[in-house]
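ping. complex inputs:
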Amino acid sequence: MAATADLLTGVAELVRSRVPAADLDERDPDYIRESLPRLWLLASLYFRAEVRGLGNVPEAGPVLLVGNHSGGNLTPDTGVFTLAFSTYFGVERVFHQLAHNLVLSMPGLSFLRKYGTVAASHDNARKALRAGAAVLVYPGGDYEVHRPSWEGRRVDFGGRKGFLRLALEEGVPIVPVVSIGGQETALFLSRGERLAKLLGLDRAFRLKVLPISVGIPWGLNIGDMLGHLPLPAKITVEALPAIDLNREFGADPDLDEVYDHLVRLMQDTLDALGAERRFPVIG
Amino acid sequence: MRVESRIEISAPPALVWEYVSDPSRYLHFMSGITRWEVVGTKRSGLGARYRMLLRVGSAEVGGLIEIVEFAHAADLAWTSITGVDQRGRWRLRSGNEGRSTVTTLRLSYGVAGSGISGWLAEQVAAPSVRGHLRRSLQQLKRQVEHEQLRSAAAERRRSRMGAA
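pong. complex structure:
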């Protein structure tokens, strides 16, 4: 048992050392621009993606885009939204996405930093917002992204409210971004929370889950660390009107009330998007 | 990638020009266009800038464009400042002894440096873009010819009343 703990600590140390410091300047607009055709092909042909309501995002200035997250470790909704945002506002508008430490430390994924992806932390988000950027955050993170497929039409932030504090402290509007289809890209069976706790992953890697799913090409896929080939599920994303928290909830809003309001709003939209779908995957 | 569509409109070039040179009309006849907004103080003419978006596949593609040619009732061309590389052109040529206008709409687009995926995306997008151009011209023809008939009828009414 002690040997396992030592091993985990060692690996955790290795991962921590690989997590790049947040350097917002690593975002490369030319790289993003040149990769847009690739993303467009993937989004248009494979995921038949549809993104609505980008007109609701304020035309300029810092904004916190708050999304529900789906699709396991390969989240098609992020790619689809990044494409749509970049073509709608142009790659000249600075746009950052917050991602789990593990994602950024994985070999072969360093290109994400060129898209403006930084490790999810309040400091990084604050730094980006103060630089005037649009920041995409998924409060549900690893908890939401690995929810079972039969909960695919449920917004589940796991009670995380830090993003609300951030928006209030920085005085930036929130734009809810609701997506559907990502949880149909594999058969997600369980988050494996107990397994993660038993193995001490929560302490070592900030991982509260060790997901179990059935996906291509692995069949039974535990951890989803190597990703999977997502099924070509139709992805629909909708950005809702911006919310100015102080204007709508007063100078010192009750975070629980704001959280409930936001989750309900996003859940209603997700229900409406779900009602448009006739078949899983096909849409 | 360059796509082009052409149509003959039964109206003189000056009337067709009124439509293609007026940015406020674009959302009414241009197919697939979700935004065509004046940027800056100049509404029309050489150097006028617009923010435009065209829905193609999963994305609204476009950016800031600037008018680089503005020859009255003949040519109007634009080029992109930001966003996807594009050049567009309206070409109006008189036909049928000035009673009709052969109207051409061209759009060249691409992303420099995007390699094979860029080439592939251009090919895949071409039928959709071509369809937008064709429908835009059909809608322009309908609107201009309707306006032509309406003003001719108004003229006839005025002359009848004058004679009475």
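Residues 115-163 of chain B form the longest helix (49 residues).
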